[in-house]
Automatic annotation (TrEMBL):
<dbReference type="GO" id="GO:0120539">
    <property type="term" value="F:4-hydroxy-3-methoxy-5-polyprenylbenzoate decarboxylase activity"/>
</dbReference>
<protein>
    <recommendedName>
        <fullName>Ubiquinone biosynthesis protein COQ4 homolog, mitochondrial</fullName>
        <ecNumber>4.1.1.130</ecNumber>
    </recommendedName>
</protein>
<comment type="similarity">
    <text>Belongs to the COQ4 family.</text>
</comment>
<keyword id="KW-0496">Mitochondrion</keyword>
<keyword id="KW-0999">Mitochondrion inner membrane</keyword>
<feature type="binding site">
    <location>
        <position position="166"/>
    </location>
    <ligand>
        <name>Zn(2+)</name>
    </ligand>
</feature>
<keyword id="KW-0479">Metal-binding</keyword>
<dbReference type="GO" id="GO:0031314">
    <property type="term" value="C:extrinsic component of mitochondrial inner membrane"/>
</dbReference>
<dbReference type="InterPro" id="IPR027540">
    <property type="entry name" value="Coq4_euk"/>
</dbReference>
<dbReference type="GO" id="GO:0008270">
    <property type="term" value="F:zinc ion binding"/>
</dbReference>
<keyword id="KW-0456">Lyase</keyword>
<feature type="binding site">
    <location>
        <position position="170"/>
    </location>
    <ligand>
        <name>Zn(2+)</name>
    </ligand>
</feature>
<keyword id="KW-0862">Zinc</keyword>
<keyword id="KW-0472">Membrane</keyword>
<dbReference type="Pfam" id="PF05019">
    <property type="entry name" value="Coq4"/>
</dbReference>
<comment type="subunit">
    <text>Component of a multi-subunit COQ enzyme complex, composed of at least COQ3, COQ4, COQ5, COQ6, COQ7 and COQ9.</text>
</comment>
<comment type="function">
    <text>Lyase that catalyzes the C1-decarboxylation of 4-hydroxy-3-methoxy-5-(all-trans-polyprenyl)benzoic acid into 2-methoxy-6-(all-trans-polyprenyl)phenol during ubiquinone biosynthesis.</text>
</comment>
């Protein structure tokens, strides 16, 4: 495989800094314009263990300061999730539907979705409720960043698949994208995937909740999310693109996911 010259790449390094000195050290480490590396997949950036550690720390700090910095959350996930990704890949390989996904490598993007067809599906179907979620929460699957720092082509796809089904998990779980909804989904994902990024988000996310929202999390949403995440079939092994017509409640039952104990509004993001 042909080598390529790693560009002077910072991945928004300025946003990773805690202070000027840290930034200078990180830039010196990450900028690798004088070295050549093998490219395992389009966009792949080869990094050393030390570089990964610096990226993990910097992105972790940035993500804690602003959980909506999806670029920093992405870097944190890629630089800390190797062992969890191996386990997820093995679960997919051992599932017929998951194995098909690993073989065919489908992507969930606006360009791959038949929006006009999905919009005609009946209320309660996976496809129709997924579109409703995207519309009500003003999100799009195209905001999911491509994987760059995972040094294994197949594991990189597993991480990409995790990102692209995240909004489908919101749909399955009935959770909006406000802070309480995101924390509940992170609790589910932590139990389901074992990704350190998800565990960190599940542990620290509640610190950003108001007292009333924290009571909802601890009283009903949290236990439900952990229970469903630990008991459910591997959510990466579901070929959602071939199940748009399936009833959402039936799919939940098939995956062993309990219905949400309370309904959350998608309107408010502050103080939630």
């Amino acid at each position: 495989m042909a080598a390529f010259k790693l560009p002077r790449y910072t991945y928004n390094v300025a946003s990773l800094s805690v202070n000027g000195k840290f930034l200078a050290r990180q830039q010196h480490t990450i900028w690798s314009s004088d070295h050549h590396y093998g490219m395992l997949y389009p966009g792949h950036i080869q990094t050393s263990p030390l570089q990964k550690a610096l990226l993990a720390v910097g992105s972790g700090v940035a993500a804690l300061q602003n959980p909506y910095r999806h670029d920093m959350v992405a870097v944190l996930g890629e630089t800390t999730g190797h062992m969890a990704l191996i386990k997820l890949r093995n679960r997919m390989r051992n599932d017929p539907e998951g194995y098909t996904i690993l073989t065919e490598r489908p992507r969930i993007r606006l360009s791959t979705l038949d929006i006009s067809s999905m919009s005609t599906l009946p209320d309660g179907s996976l496809g129709r409720e997924y579109l409703r979620f995207l519309d009500e929460n003003k999100v799009t699957p195209d905001t999911r960043a491509d994987v760059k720092f995972v040094d294994d082509e197949e594991l990189a796809y597993v991480m990409q698949r995790y990102r692209e089904v995240h909004d489908l998990l919101h749909t399955l779980l009935g959770m909006p994208t406000n802070m309480l909804g995101e924390v509940a989904v992170k609790w589910f994902e932590a139990a389901q995937t074992g990704l350190p990024m998800c565990i960190l988000g599940a542990a620290l996310g509640p610190l950003r909740l108001s007292i009333s929202r924290l009571q909802k999390l601890m009283g009903s949403l949290g236990p439900w999310a952990l229970r469903s995440g630990s008991r459910a079939r591997c959510v990466l092994s579901v070929f959602y693109e071939r199940r748009w017509e399936q009833n959402l409640e039936e799919l939940r039952e098939e995956l062993n996911i309990e219905p949400p104990p309370i309904k959350l509004s998608a309107k408010s993001k502050k103080g939630s």
